[in-house]
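Ticket 4471: requesting a sanity check on a complex prediction with thymidine-5'-phosphate. Repro inputs:
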Amino acid sequence: MFMQKTELLYEGKAKKVYATEDPEYCIVSYKDDATAFNGLKKGTIVGKGVVNNRMSNFMFKLLEQKGIKTHFVEELNERDTVVRKVSIVPLEVIVRNKAAGSLSKRLGLEEGTPMRVPVLEFCYKNDDLGDPMVNNYHILAAGFATQEEIDKIASMSLAVNKTMIEFFKSVNVDLIDFKLEFGKTSDGEIILADEISPDTCRFWDIHTGEKLDKDRFRRDMGGVEEAYAEMMKRIGLN
Ligand code: TMP
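Returned structure tokens:
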């Protein structure tokens, strides 16, 4: 497929999205810029764009093999990928297998506490409001999604979790939690969009518990680039 960037449609904190000559497709371009705490902390993780692009595409292909539809179309180069054009459902869907981060704070649970069932959380995707958590009623009342769409998003998220837990276990990584975003195609179908990367997941070494994700940046732990490189190595991408 021959695709070229035309105009810049949108620049986010970690990616740029370009239009192409075909209205059904966009090109996402992954940056090395890193932010945390809703943009309050800013920095650069050298090579992150390459890791996140290649790892997301690897994961999307794996999920497609399991029957989960995603926006992935074709990797153009180490930072750029052709994706289906979707309108993003304004929800961040968080799936948690063990307590960490904001859940540990909110419920007073020690980080690493196993969840008896996977926990699903929805946040309204709005930087000005700091992505507040919302429940089913808020989503319906505000019109962020229909009940049918919520049900589809929830079942897809749990299916993604199953595949990801199993895959990461096979490379000695404990999948603690992650964030997904979904989009609607021009014919109204809900598909998985955005990215799956060390920016959007918590990965702990299965034996040592060492953090191999963006928490190293968020928490000023050092070894950030090394952790991203280690995840690439684990999944066999370099
Ligand atoms: P949290 O514990 O800070 O709520 O994060 C839960 C998961 O979601 C974690 O894997 C990091 C990811 N995440 C994002 O991808 N984007 C965000 O803006 C936030 C707050 C978390």
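Notes from triage: Residues 54 and 237 are 8 Å apart (CA to CA). Leaving this open until the requester confirms.
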